[in-house]
Design brief:
The protein has strands spanning 14-17, 22-30, 32-35, 38-51, 56-58, 61-68, 71-73, 76-78, 81-84, 89-91, 94-96, 98-102, 106-108, 111-113, 120-122. It has 129 residues and is mostly beta strands.
């Protein structure tokens, strides 16, 4: 069964990084990460990554699958899927095997879909994370 939300497919425990956290440097790891804080640097996660509403990342974000509900000032690079929620703002390029962008999201940069399929545009019907 296909589930549209990347987080719906996550298995095992998640690593939550609180909204009060400020990170400078590189974040790397395995598993499902939910980032709610502020960061400046690079991110390379072997697994799904969710940047929650209110989160701010300055730098390149890399992960297997990525959901952006907050703000990214840099490139978003997924080895799999990218989902951009309606509350998101991305200043930089998006790339992945498939990309879905919700109505209301702001993308200031290039969108590259590696599969050759066009980006999917959708209306958010769930509450945002």
């Amino acid at each position: 069964m296909f589930k549209r939300r990347i987080g719906d497919n996550a298995t095992g425990p998640s690593t939550y990084i609180a909204a009060t956290t400020r990170l400078e440097g590189k974040l790397a790891g395995q598993g499902h990460y939910v980032f709610c804080g502020t960061a400046e640097g690079e991110c390379d996660i072997d697994g799904p990554l969710t940047l929650a509403k209110g989160a701010l990342w300055k730098g390149t974000v890399r992960a297997t699958d990525i959901v952006v509900a907050g703000t990214v000032e840099g490139d978003v690079v997924a080895r799999g899927r990218v989902e951009i929620v309606g509350s998101a703002r991305v200043t930089g390029s998006l790339s992945g095997q498939s990309i879905a962008v919700a109505e209301g999201a702001v993308i200031e940069g290039e969108i590259r879909v590696a599969s050759g399929d066009p980006p999917l545009v959708f209306q958010e019907k769930r509450s945002q994370e």
